[in-house]
Amino acid sequence: MVEVPGTRWKNLGPRLLTAIVLVLICIAPFYIGGFVWALLVALIAVRIMYEWMRMTDPDAGLIGQSIAMIGLVVSLVYAVQGLPVWAIAALCVATFFAVAERLPRGGTGWTAIGLPYVILPAVLLILLRGSDVGFDTRGFTQLIFIIVIVIAADVGAYFGGSSIGGPKLAPKLSPNKTWSGVVCGLIFASVVAVIAGLFIGLPISLSVLLAVPIVVFSVVGDLLESTVKRRVGIKDTGTLLPGHGGLLDRLDSLMLAVVGGALLFMLIGDSWPIA
Q1: DSSP 133
Q2: Is 0.85 topped by the overall pTM?
């Protein structure tokens, strides 16, 4: 493909502006945590669920949409109360009824995947952040660690892949993603993880050991969403965010990264320096 002059960075301006707006919206609730953060997560998750259903189940009626949204809200209510088992149980029940409701029109696989795909990361965002206010809390530092790694990987992949090019990572799934971009994203994310770890009190080795699988989870999340969009024949999940598309287009990498990060934090236990 011959590159048209000026197109390499054509989305940089809108992407940067959108990122700044998202940060400004999220920073205060993220600092406060608890119910305020949960409310923001719920609003975002409702929008993402809407985008997912519009993409994979456009014929869903009021009942199908209500099951998904009620399951989402109930799961998040349990999460904000610090009841992870009940939150997961609510997710399972909602998925069961949503799949049963969709049986007559087919495509139950999309529903069986979609509800956990949207609800589980939202539940973990609330559980990880917790209700303690401030920067020097376990929830804030763990979640910000995941977020800065995902952002760094995205930035590194964007600039590295656009500048270097080369072989495609998965041309049938995501034609714009290159191996050079993934490697650059991994390197930049590791560097940022080390810097963030110094502020938090993490050893350099542990920062890198955490960063690498989080980046892998983020790449898988990106590829998963790209696969779904290709299967249903759309380019973006929405037009809400200039330069990005829908919220799902912007947060697909973070969603699985949060799941991976939560598993890693469980594995390292008390090795995290902030109680």
Answers
A1: -
A2: yes
DSSP string, 208-241: HHHHHHHHHHHHHHHHHHHHHHHHHT-S-S-SSB
What is the rounded distance in angstroms from the CA atom of residue 15 to the CA atom of residue 132? 31
Structure-token match 């490697």, residue found: 183
- Which of 151, 260, 264 has the alpha carbon at shortest distance from 206? 264
Opening angle at CA 237, ends 182 and 28, nearest 5: 75
Q: Which residue has the tokens 């995902």?
A: 150
For residues 247 and 47, is the Cβ–Cβ distance under 8 A? yes
d(CA 119, CA 69): 10
What are the sequence ranges of the domains in the chain?
Answer: 34-131, 134-275
Across the chain, which distance is largest between two alpha carbons, in Å?
A: 55
Q: Indicate the length of the chain as a whole number.
A: 275
* pLDDT in single tens digits along all 275 residues of the chain: 333 334 445 566 666 777 788 888 889 999 999 999 999 999 999 999 999 999 998 888 899 999 999 999 999 999 999 999 999 999 999 999 999 999 998 889 999 999 999 999 999 999 999 999 988 899 999 999 999 999 999 888 888 877 787 777 777 777 677 888 889 999 999 999 999 999 999 999 999 999 999 999 999 998 888 888 888 888 888 777 666 678 888 888 899 999 999 999 999 988 898 86
Structure tokens that stand for 110 in this block: 């999309």
